[in-house]
């Protein structure tokens, strides 16, 4: 594709749009990579500071795509032919943008069992696939020295400001019109009352049928019954903040792992792995054993099967996917806590 629009499109396009071309594609690619990266960071962030930074970066890069839309449409309109993979890319982008905005403005809800964030992340992953195909098929854009000229940098800065302004408009609209907006926290999640905590699976996990009276958790080689955990439990207030777009502040009843493990063995280990009967597992730094709880009840009521009965992990300060349900074992380990995929795979 040439940098200068040709033929009918060139004649019809509004003057500033006639420059649509290589730099439009480059800018769009960078924005999409920025949105993917900041979205991933927003998912991983557990604390308000990093979550806010990632959320602003995500809103600016995600909505910044819209600022370049007029230029990209000139590029698309003058293309000799449109490949079906390109149309799929466009469709996924529309779904991704729409579901992102619905999550922000619409409050938490599910339609046919899926939340807007699930549609959003699913379409973003699809975008990545078709995006790679798209970039490989079309001549990859190269950088030239002139891209770093003063004029170019000023133009890029103007686009950056327009993207930030688009995000600010979305944010102000959110605060004014959204019912749930006032209750949104740094990660973007909407508040739910503790009684409404939904049974949530990360991807493909299934709720197992477990016998409350017989269940045991193997803690560093020693079996601990669910009944013993219940009788030793003390209250712990914590915020369960799920990446599917909701959070709930509740009081759980549980026993800290530190009270079940030998301090000498904890000191000698680097990580502690909490594994579900389903195989779902998360690895934590060993030093965190005082901040991880094996819980058997929430708000004074025993856990339900869907929310982790008989025993689940409560990990205050960590996103919901760390709160392993249906815990089968707790193991001390020599490997560092980072020796795991950043997100669960089941
Ligand atoms: C290229 C891909 C992506 C694009 C274009 C995109 C775009 C957007 C847009 C436009 C919004 C609404 C922002 C607002 O109105 O303030 C949004 C929100 C959101 N996105 Fe993405 N996104 C992408 C990828 C991802 C990924 C990979 C994740 C997570 C792994 C993610 C997670 C989220 C979350 C949690 C929100 C809600 C944030 C909030 O409440 O402010 N996004 N996204
Ligand atoms: N074994 C297992 N534990 C799990 C999950 C899962 O799919 N399997 N989902 C996690 C996610 S994503 C969240 S948000 C919380 C949800 O807990 P809830 O079902 O009580 O809402 O459990 C976490 N623990
Ligand atoms: Mo979650």
Give me the secondary-structure topology.
Layout: H1 7-12, H2 22-44, H3 48-77, H4 84-106, H5 116-137, H6 150-177, E1 190-191, E2 216-219, E3 222-225, H7 226-232, E4 234-242, E5 246-256, H8 263-268, E6 271-276, E7 281-285, E8 293-298, E9 301-302, E10 312-314, E11 327-333
Parallel strand pairs: 1-5, 2-11
Antiparallel strand pairs: 2-3, 4-5, 5-8, 6-7, 6-11, 8-9, 8-10
Helix pairs in contact: 2-3, 3-6, 4-5
Could you characterize what this model shows?
Helices cover 42% and strands 17% of the residues. The longest helix is centred in the N-terminal third of the chain and has 30 residues, at 48-77. The mean pLDDT is 91. It is elongated and about 80 Å long. A hairpin with a 4-residue loop joins β6 and β7 (281-285). With 346 residues, it is an alpha+beta fold. The chain folds into two domains: 6-190, no CATH class; 194-333, Sulfite Oxidase, Chain A, domain 2 (Alpha-Beta Complex), CATH 3.90.420.10. The structure holds protoporphyrin IX containing FE, the ligand Nc1nc2c(c(=O)[nH]1)N[C@H]1C(S)=C(S)[C@@H](COP(=O)(O)O)O[C@H]1N2 and molybdenum atom. The ligand Nc1nc2c(c(=O)[nH]1)N[C@H]1C(S)=C(S)[C@@H](COP(=O)(O)O)O[C@H]1N2 binds at residues 197-202, 205, 242, 276, 278, 280, 306-308, 320-321, 323-326.
